[in-house]
From TrEMBL:
This protein's name: Zinc/iron-chelating domain-containing protein
Source species of the chain: Croceivirga radicis
Pfam families registered for this protein in UniProt: CxxCxxCC
Length: 165
């Protein structure tokens, strides 16, 4: 995994134009069974990719925190939401709450998340490869293939599975 992660930004960069073109085509004409196909590819990939050997998303990006996330996590940590925000979050350029720093402060050295049960929705859903209407998040997917080995592999598998035109 370590070698894969080291090479991933370069590999994703090399595939960027190809992926961009492929995803744009997909958006224009998504196949009827896309949701099923994505669920299948996602499940197959995560049968072989163990997030505990990776944690690259928690180390290099970090989620957006919704109000519901903030309330839930603050409660778990026995803090008031405002205390939680002051201690851990900042507003980004889009006015969304994000972590003050990465790697995420809740990530352990063993790659376990210390707030796993109450983690942000965005963490639960990352890398979004099993969401419905996957073709609607192309820009995000293009970013995620440079961060997440599973997302990279899933997009590669999609290119193999879907008709070329
Ligand atoms: S979701 Fe992707 S980047 Fe995050 S730990 Fe799993 S494989 Fe790694
Ligand atoms: S809250 Fe947990 S899952 Fe989310 S980025 Fe932090 S360590 Fe990772």
């Amino acid at each position: 995994m370590e070698d894969f992660l080291k090479d991933l930004p370069k590999k994703a960069n090399q595939k960027h134009q190809e992926n961009k073109k492929f995803l744009a085509k997909l958006k224009k004409k998504p196949p009827k069974n896309l949701d099923y196909l994505m669920a299948d590819l996602h499940e197959k990939e995560f049968r072989q990719t163990d997030c505990l050997t990776c944690a690259n998303c928690c180390k290099t990006t970090g989620p957006l925190f919704t109000n519901a996330d903030i309330e839930r996590i603050a409660k778990k940590l026995r803090l008031k939401p405002t205390q939680f925000i002051d201690a851990y979050l900042r507003l980004d350029e889009d006015n969304d709450y994000v972590l003050q720093n990465v790697p995420c402060v809740f990530l352990g050295t063993d790659n376990y998340c210390s707030i796993y049960d109450v983690r942000p929705k965005a963490c639960r859903e990352y890398p979004h490869t099993d969401r419905k209407k996957f073709h609607q998040i192309n820009n995000l997917t293009l970013k995620n293939v440079a961060i997440c080995p599973a997302a990279y592999n899933i997009v590669e598998a999609m290119k193999q599975s879907l008709p070329k035109k």
